[in-house]
């Protein structure tokens, strides 16, 4: 079962977006342009917090990315062809493509990483299970 951002928030789930430009250089714009083009090109208006564009992989990756990736098993043994990747020091835990998602419990401990082709917010049973965790 999929759930929307609003349904997830009813369980205390907070959705955060971290734009980056690692895959086929799809996010080349400045921070203000990233959200503008998402809205113009697809009508997507996020109902969640967007952060500044940064690096999620490689030698200059953001600390939050390192923490999340190292806390969960890799989502796949496969990696995008290197011709479509734009960072150095490729690792098995690297985010494989756009829209990879991490489910983090209320106590700040990452629970799982969802592969990019799962376009939904984490499935309801996963949200139910972490919403019952005590902080």
From TrEMBL:
InterPro entries: Glutathione_peroxidase, Thioredoxin-like_sf. It holds the Pfam family GSHPx. GO terms for biological process: response to oxidative stress. GO terms for molecular function: glutathione peroxidase activity. It comes from the Eukaryota. Keywords: Oxidoreductase, Peroxidase, Selenocysteine. Gene3D superfamilies: Glutaredoxin. Belongs to the glutathione peroxidase family. This is Glutathione peroxidase. It comes from Rhinolophus ferrumequinum.
């Amino acid at each position: 079962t999929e759930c929307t951002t609003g349904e997830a928030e009813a369980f205390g789930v907070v959705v955060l977006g971290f734009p980056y430009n690692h895959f086929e250089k799809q996010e080349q714009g400045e921070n203000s342009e990233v959200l503008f083009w998402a809205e113009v090109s697809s009508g997507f208006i996020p109902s969640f917090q967007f952060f500044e564009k940064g690096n999620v992989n490689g030698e200059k990756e953001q600390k939050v990315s390192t923490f999340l990736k190292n806390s969960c098993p890799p989502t796949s043994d496969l990696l995008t062809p290197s011709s479509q990747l734009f960072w150095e020091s490729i690792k098995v835990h690297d985010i494989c493509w756009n829209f990879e998602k991490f489910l983090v419990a209320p106590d700040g401990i990452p629970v799982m990483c969802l592969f990019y082709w799962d376009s939904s917010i984490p499935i309801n049973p996963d949200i139910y299970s972490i919403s019952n965790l005590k902080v």
